[in-house]
Specification:
The chain is α/β, with parallel strands linked by helices and 450 residues long. It contains 18 helices and 12 strands. Strands 5, 6, 7, 8, 9, 10, 11 and 12 form an 8-stranded mixed beta sheet that branches. The protein has a 4-stranded antiparallel beta sheet with strand order 2-3-1-4, with no helix packed on it. The radius of gyration is 24 Å and the shape is globular.
């Protein structure tokens, strides 16, 4: 097979991946796995397709803005996908010369469409190559949400929320982070934190976070699961921001603890570590499919003492009261956009409202498990007020037997920048280079609270 045919095969696979993802029927990794199998791609080709598809999906909004600056006429879905991927290579990839991107995607368009479609793709790509400096984005100062939408490729509704909640400068930092490439984050499992692992972890390609003890970025390339550290049960996947909820809960040895929405198990492991395995921990997960992954993650680390329950917290009855109930609520995940390229296009405002309503129900149900003087922790991996402070505020207004406990930033190694005016923890990506996360600590002061 000639080099040209190989490149055609790779780009054809990329276009088909993009189309299946754009339709909303497939997640990125599922689409990639199908393409890798169907086209029998080599490792280098797989990496190329993954980078191109992931990048094009993430930057789709900006690429469509560029397209519309030059396009005259209508395109078929195939021709449009070829054009978007061609523009992505020209705008964001330095590994392929512009002329090659033009030639290859015009040729690929012509293989599946009529000459007119290929001619339109050719015209847009060549005009962009010649006149890219003529593109004018909305004004940052006058049209902030439109600027974030078109330049950083984010849904307008989300841009409006970011500007409203944080102001344009912080919103732009969040948008910039959302388009960054984030290395996988792992935590060194405390019981395995012997001299051998501590001294040799960086030799396998892991680099320590400056602020977060025990957390590492994997910079070794490939999959961290292929390392000796992972195979030996010395590390598990978790972003540092996700581990803060268990810390600010301040669990103690001997505590009774419920982790609501426990899968895939990161916070359950955190609670186990914080209490040296000497607390009575219940990991509660409603999704039967996720229970398998939860068990696998716990057992891989040798954790066998956690009580795993497949149940809806709203249906739990006759359970002993707990010292700590951590509600890891189902949320939009908008604090993880850098790691989830297609998430920005899958979440819509109606989802946020639905999730907010569900979060309020779960928090109310979980509160009934808290003993007097016990703590209720509400945690998400999103960053907007509607799923965070507004949910906690609603609960506190309707449950006078609970009070908010302000998080002491210095006590947990945080800067004051990560504490909201209400006293909750809100880590934004610009604070420490992590995912975004939120947590509110509440204490039960009235035994009869409902």
């Amino acid at each position: 097979m000639s080099t040209k045919n190989k490149r055609d095969k790779v780009r054809e696979a990329a276009v088909k991946c993009y189309l299946s993802i754009e339709s909303g029927n497939r997640f990125i990794q599922d689409a990639l796995n199908t393409a890798f199998s169907r086209y029998r791609l080599k490792d280098k080709e797989k990496r190329f397709v993954k980078e191109m598809v992931t990048g094009a999906v993430k930057m789709r909004g900006r690429l469509e803005f560029i397209r519309d600056s030059f396009l005259k006429g209508e395109l078929t879905r195939w021709a449009n996908a070829c054009l978007i991927l061609g523009l992505y290579q020209m705008e964001f990839s330095s590994s392929v010369p512009d002329y090659a991107a033009v030639n290859e995607f015009v040729t690929l368009t012509g293989r599946f469409e009529n000459p007119g479609a290929a001619s339109m793709v050719n015209a847009v790509l060549r005009n962009f190559q010649r006149d890219r400096d003529s593109i004018t984005y909305p004004s940052k100062s006058e049209n902030s949400a439109e600027y974030l939408r078109d330049y950083y490729s984010l849904p307008k509704w989300f841009c409006i929320e970011l500007v409203k909640d944080f102001g344009i400068e912080e919103a732009e930092d969040i948008a910039r982070w959302a388009n960054s490439r984030q290395a996988p984050s792992v935590k060194l499992f405390s019981p395995s934190k012997g001299k051998h692992y501590s001294e040799h972890i960086e030799l396998e390609g892991f680099k320590a976070y400056n602020r977060f003890k025990g957390y590492y970025r994997y910079l070794g390339g490939g999959d961290p699961r292929d390392t000796n550290l992972y195979k030996s049960g010395a590390i598990y996947f978790q972003d540092p921001s996700a581990g803060l909820a268990a810390k600010i809960a301040e669990p103690k040895e001997g505590d009774i603890i419920y982790d609501i929405g426990a899968a895939p198990g990161g916070k359950t492991i955190n609670l186990y570590e914080e209490t040296k395995g000497k607390a009575k921990i219940f990991a509660i997960e409603i999704n039967e499919g996720k229970i398998k992954g939860l068990k696998k993650n716990l057992y891989r680390l040798g954790i066998n003492s956690v009580n795993i329950i497949c149940e809806d917290v709203r249906a739990l009855k006759d359970k002993e009261s707990a010292d700590i109930v951590l509600v890891d609520a189902p949320c939009s995940g908008l604090g993880t956009l850098a790691r989830n390229a297609d998430l920005r296009w899958r979440i819509i405002p109606e989802d946020v409202q639905r999730l907010s309503d569900q979060q309020k129900e779960l928090l109310k149900a979980a509160s009934k498990l808290v003993k007097p003087k016990g703590r209720l922790i509400y945690s998400t991996c999103t960053i907007t007020r509607k799923e965070n402070q507004e949910v906690a505020d609603d609960f506190l207004q309707n449950n006078k037997g609970f009070v908010r406990i302000p998080v002491e930033s210095e006590k947990f190694g945080m800067g004051k920048i990560s504490i909201t005016e209400e006293g909750d923890l809100l880590v934004l990506p610009s604070h420490y280079g992590t995912d975004g996360a939120y947590a509110c600590v509440m204490e039960k002061v009235n035994e009869n609270s409902r």
